[in-house]
Queue: 2 jobs
Job 1
Amino acid sequence: MKLKLTGALLLLALVAAACGSDGDSGAAASCAVGETDGDLSFYNWADYIDEESIPRFEEEYGIKVEYTMYESNEQMLAQVDAGAANYDLIVPSDYMVDTMIAEGLLMELDFDAIPNATNISDEFHSPPFDPDHKYHVAYQWGTTGIGISYDALEELGNVEPTWGFIFDPALSGMVSGGISMLDDAPESFSAALKYLGYSIDEVMVGGNEEAIREAGELLKATKASLLKYDSVAYSDDLMNGELAVAHGWSGSFAAAIFEADAYETHVYVIPKEGGVRWVDGMAIPASAEHPCSAHAMINFMTDAQNGAALTNYVYYASPNEAATEFILDEILEDEGIYPNAETSAKLEFIPQAGELGLLMQDLFVEAKG
Amino acid sequence: MAALDQSAAQADSRKGRLIATPAALYLLFFFMIPLGVIVTYSFATRTATGRTVLTGWNLSSYDKLFSELVLRIIWRSFWMASVTTILCLLVAYPFAYYLATRAPKVRNILLVLVMIPFWTNGLIRIFAIRFLLGSDGPASQLSENLGFGTFRILFTPTAVVIGMVYSFLTFMVLPLYVAIERMDWKLVEAARDLYAGGTVAFRKVTWPLTRSGVIAGSILVFVPSFGSYVVPEILGGAKTMLLGSYVARQFGAARNFPFGAALSVVLIAVMLIAVVINQRAEANRA
Amino acid sequence: MSTTMRPTKWASRLLALNAWLVFAFFYIPIIVLVVFSFNGSRRVNIWGGLSTRWYPEVLQNEVILDALKNSLMVASISTIVATILGTSLALALDRYRFRGRKTLDGAVFLPVIIPDVTMAVMMLVFFAQVFRFIDSFGPRFQLGIYTIVISHIAFNISFVAVVVRARLGQLDPSLEEAARDLYASGWRAFQKVTLPLILPGVLAGALLALALSLDDVVISAFVTGPGSTTLPVYVFSAIRRGVTPELNAISSLMLLASTVLVLGSLFLQREPKSKTNNQGE
């Protein structure tokens, strides 16, 4: 038995080594507008598409859509990287697009097959993670900031919102309710960096380890004032009073406030130091078996009306300029969802941080004790 | 006679292998080999972006295991898992005893009642507990009405233990029930006649007889508690970093597969040793 | 057991109290769950009046029904296979001496003690490598229901084996020796004596396997492929957007279904017993 075991393990190691796991190079696709090449396997975040879009797409193009959902970028990456399942269309976040391009996991898009891509406003055309705009088309975007109750704001003396609500013990001490941060290392570090006055991009891309460690110390010191770390239920808990101040994503708060009709009691704000802006994009894995169907779906979702339908359901911001006329007014006017120009200027993407990324993960664990 | 015994033993051995083979093969192919892959990964390197490359074999992942942070996490998880196990034992033993001493018809019904919560989705049950323990929830309101003030249990280690006990209590009840029910009660009767007090009879007879159930139950509770991560995140507010979350994080957000693999290997090795030692001790005692 | 040992009255009362408290502990969250499945409002913390609208919604939701179908398929197949393999493994380990027995004995525990996440990742990587290997010969494989089944069987074999083994350990070997003397063939002896004796253990193991398979989130999430989402994975994913009465309704329905099933099987078992004379318990 033991001999057999060792033999099996050795064999495996050899096979593993031989078969390496280099992604296929980003071969370009070539599709005609509206061309489909079989049923589409669409892998998307949970609850990130309205209920009508898929049936409408299926009807218009005559193909079926196999819709599977994931919880996190890393889960999606694990599946696509392993290559053990075929997905034609995925929706990675900004830094994940960066990672996947670097690892050769994405297919170059054929923009001839996506005429509606011109609907996407220019500011999304050359983001830092895909400067040549070859691998993705923006899907939804949003910001990360603070959801807070008006009561708590009053307790804090109605000052201009700042990350200090979380990081400054003098301020956080004045809040009687609970405070939470996202259970997400890059996001929490970005908030800390902004509070400390750094530029996220400069620190992470520039490799400023000192700044990261400084932020790590701040996070460690902050743990005591927090009720919890949560990336899942924070907006719910804000609505039910468990939390008074919550670090979280714009759309989550917008949807929660809408559903609980809590416009009079709660609000989402972006602190004065600035915050994070993020974009999720539609992309096609290099190993996709039905790339043309995927292109058709991208084209479909970037249509003005479909783009608007999406936003009207998920309550995140649409990168689609042409869709603006079809989006609900209450969403367009919500400064939490569509921040004004002044605030926008202070927002930054979180880049792929390489080695610093691992350091942040480790320091985050330390901060949580 | 010796030759006959020997060929009987051989036939026995052949038969044994025959019966064991299908399961053993399955485990070999669909468990041991995947496990081998993970073990291999623990010696691999992690690229800057988090991909695992099977070159540059090294032991750095194992080095990391001895850092203060990791040891603290391991200790904390061990402590919480032990508390959970002991609590489960204290609660489940009398409970199983009660069940096993009912009339047969009642016993079956009660057993079914025990199993039913087990068949609801574990996650939703935990969220129900979360609701109950919330600072605005019914438990808190009740305590307020009783004059104890609101209580903040949610997002503390206490809540995590409550959640784990809730999730795994059934694992302790069932083996204990089986052990107690199967006990030869004549021995207990005899013990009671021999020893004056019921407690002594319990200690000298009942407890040793049910020990295998206690061990089985303890393993079935300790192990998932030790590696649990959903409950600590939902009920503990992710403030108490436990081993399960830590490992999950390595395979997830941190994308550090080699380290996650190393953690897993050590975890498995330690628990395996503990279990095997126990098995051998049991066998010797029998 | 023929004589029921009744402890003192005082101890008896305490035991009963403990039992009821434990039942309360088990059931209060369940009751909350069921009550909130009738919540008129979407958010779980705000009571919006009594309403049954979620139930028809759930029953008509194709995504949920698909997930349920997948879960049931996976659970039933993996339970049956794992029970057969696990039981045979337990028997072999307990009854026979053969080379490699000690190693196998230890190895059986591995799936029980391995962390969920580790098993999930290792199965994913394993399948990926195997598929890549097979791919070079032509056929293209993908993750799907069958990969979940394979993974579930892998850990369930051990759980079943451990439970049956515990049961075997308590049996009186003289009974089986006697059986072997009585019946000419080992198979008959097994059928007539061993099997009925271990049946409670086998059933317990099977029920455990079933519950574990139906509740598994992590492993299923990792080795699932397009279109093979199982119910717990769906719930885990949906719960992110907030606990809704819908999810509670799904749980309540599953609760109802399993209760009915178990009560039904108990009822069926009862009939023949009343017909024959009270065979000693």
Note: DSSP finds twelve helices and two strands in chain B.
Job 2
Amino acid sequence: MVVKMSKKPALLLSVLLVLGLLPIALQGNARILNILSACLMWGVVASAWDLSIGYAHVWSFGHIAFFVIGGYTGALGVMYLGIPPAAAIPLGGVAAAIIGLLIALPCLRLHGIYIAMVTFGIHLVMPTFILWGRDYTYGATGLTGFAPLQLGQYTFSSSVPFFSYYVIFGVSILLLFIIQRVINSSIGLAFMALRDSEPFAKTLGVDEYKYKLIVFGISAFMAGLMGGLYTSFYATISPFVLEVSTFLMVLIMLMLGGLGRFPGAVIGAFVITGLSEALRPLLLLRFVILGAIVIAVMIAMPEGLMAIPEKVRSFIRRTFGRGDVEKEERKG
Amino acid sequence: MDILQVNKVTKCFGELAAVKELSFEVEKGEIFGIAGPNGAGKTTLFNLVSGLYSGSGDIIFEGENLHGLRPFQICHKGVARTFQVPTLCSTVTVCQNIRVGAHFGVLKGKSEKERIDSVIDFVGLRGRENAIAGSVDLFDKRLTMLAAALATEPRLLLVDEPISGLSPREARDSVALFQKINKELGITIIIIEHLMKVLIEVSHRLMIMNSGEKICIGPPQEVTRDKEVIEVYLGG
């Protein structure tokens, strides 16, 4: 019996297989494995942000702040409270989610740019908070030297890339699966209904406050969790992550992949992180080239890279479809 | 028996009173038409009843005051509406739009799938349910809005200018559909429309508004003979 798979699951399985087998094919190439790990981590961060901006149209600009909150919570928990790293990483997610929900409260009655202003305010005050707590956070220097995540005999660290890649791969796939499930659930339907037409959604029974809180909670949790994982992986966290360049980089990943077009943000993360690393020898010139590529893609395809299959299908229809109609007419 | 009582409802935007001390009742099971010149406050009234605007005065639905309730709570009480300009989720399918109403609009009852299927058949969208809502024609967009509203299993349906922009044939089909909704489903309908011919045909009673106030209410034949209505709205 021949079992036929539909195109999407087959493609997904192929991508997972390639990503899963890459470390073996690369024979443990440390640099490339660490770049791939970064791609996966930023892919999850950007996808969680997409839930908020792309799907629910809640313009939260506090996403990198949530990422940093997760990172600091995990590191401080390990250093000062003796929490095991395996528990400190999800704790970072929980802390980010709690702060995300607290920030969501004043945003409930706000829309668009006003939510962006309030949430970006959190991003802007974060370095000050870190400096105020310098006795614990070591201020601008950042935190280092906390116990790494240890799984049996293996250490989770960028200096152990083969093992660490599989940890990041597992966590990322799990979180991306959850994001995909959220998008396809009734929660995702509520997000999309509120995004496309808030009056329509509200008068059909969608409680906009509830779903705003949910989107803040989920996206902040995931950003915080990845912040914890990132901190553990690189064994450091500092206010440097809060520089505008990180914020813009993740936003560009999201825009390049396609807003509200999961898994576009993951593709955007791979393209931007990969290009950034490939162009590293060009020093500052790489930012000019990266910027030019992003501008070109945004002008040619404002819907992002995820729109390529649609564009190709539409081109084929336009080019060959007419022929089919003419054939039908001749038959008639 | 009244299903809706509007008592001294006022809505102001700054200095402008869009609805002024408006009072009227709608009987259970009737089709109640509302007409009036542009800026009369008809859509503002719908926004007040559905909770999109808050104003002063009381709006009593089935004996319960809706004042202070949010739109989703009013929907759960049994009030649904459509919009003058097609307002729906344009990036998802017609079926997904209906699912929004079926999933979020009803707290308990028939299964979601059953409700979606029955409203698709009822309004005549079968065969187009998998099209992207933003790409279908105006008539189907209006049917989608109506189907999503019906999927919430309302007892009162507010319909805002459902005929505007439709062809004569589509308009006739719409009128027949509203009569079918009223008769077969027993849903009370309040309909705002500019086309008096349609309103007279479909409504049991009519209310004419002007500058946020009621100027006449009664059976269509009486209302259309009213001197003030002729002067303000229908013209000589």
Note: The radius of gyration of chain A is 22 Å.
